[in-house]
Amino acid sequence: MAHSVEIDSKEAWGGGRSPFNLSYGKIFMWFFLVSDALTFGGLLISYGFIRHKYAEVWPKAENVFTHFPFVEQHIPLAYVGLMTFILIMSSVTMVLAVEAGHRMDKKGVITWMFWTIVGGAAFVGSQAWEWYHFIIGTHEGGPTGIGGALRNVWDPATSTYVQQVWHGANMTVNEYGVPQFANYFFFITGFHGTHVFSGVVLNTIIFLNVIKGTYERRGHYEMVEKVGLYWHFVDLVWVFVFTFFYLL
Amino acid sequence: MSEFHDHYPNYEVMANHGEEEGKKNRSVLWKVFWVMLAITVFELIVGFLAPGKGWSGTWWLKTLFIGLTIAKAAAIVLWFMHLKHEVKFFKWAILAPYIVFMFYTIFVILTEGIYSGKSEHFTRVDPIFVKQQADLKSGHHGGDAAGHDKGASHDAAPDHH
What we know:
The complex is a heterodimer. By secondary structure, chain A is mainly alpha-helical. Helix content of chain A is 64%, strand content 4%. Chain A has a two-stranded antiparallel sheet. In chain A, helix 2 packs antiparallel against helix 6 and helix 5 (106-136) packs antiparallel against helix 6 (179-212). Chain A is elongated. Mean pLDDT of chain A is 85; it is low at 144-149. Chain B has helices at 19-53, 59-80, 88-118, 127-137. Chain B is elongated and about 75 Å long. The model of chain B is unreliable at 142-161 (pLDDT under 50). Classes of the chains: A mainly alpha, B mainly alpha.
């Protein structure tokens, strides 16, 4: 079909048609994604600010995120890299599902959407696994090893501050560094993980509808496109979160 | 073009296409994927090597990562979300706020964030924490095995977060 269509302006503004040669539903999804991106943008800006404020004591991500399933050694950033790859792959399978929808290829849509859902579920599971290890902490704990939080507790018996070695992480204190490190980790990855999870749920609903033949009857697979936009947005946010939280 | 049995407009830009055009589209999409994979692998390798080679925290490393991230984001938005092939007005209606927003973000982080990091006077950080961090950095541990800090104040517990 035509790309970059020229429209007679009288016809364009004459009413009775949705603007930009796009259906209303798709325009709405784009506008929603713009607002959601601003939400994540706000979170990331505040993260950048706090991270630089505590730049001296902020832990290095490659020292904190070193776990890999079924492997005993510490491999920095490997699992996060794998998660990024999984999410990008699921974005690719999603766009292939959309493309299959354009050719009214129902079997193709089913195949590619299935892999997208699998990829999304794998990502959510991996994120949960990362959270588990983050919360449990390391054997050494802080403050040694990762240069993290030195938690001072007032010991009435000796009337001094006693340095307490802390294991794991919660919203108040963590073994890796200042409390804000764990706060932002939970908040940003949690917010993103919720989006991934809701994306998986939406994808599953649409997937079931595709199998039922709803879109064959309608004559177009636009719903797959719309939910595909949401899924790509989720991948987009992860690209930014991955860079700002794990790399910088 | 097939029959639509609902309100789906016939003038929709991305309406259905045939097999040959589908093949072309798919090959473009796979190319974009390979480029994004290459960029991600490159980022991971650099991120892995950076601490060992003392690149961490340098301005050019940050610029490199941010630049590559923007490249990946552009690839996703333009090709996977199909924005490149939309009507120009719509494309810019979505992109222009982002570009402005991104530049502002980077400006704010670099100016306000770094400025606040440099100031020791208005950041209410626990002074014992600061001292212990300094001790850690200089490589000597100020306490004994039980963690008693010999330099600890014997005053009443000061107010700290």
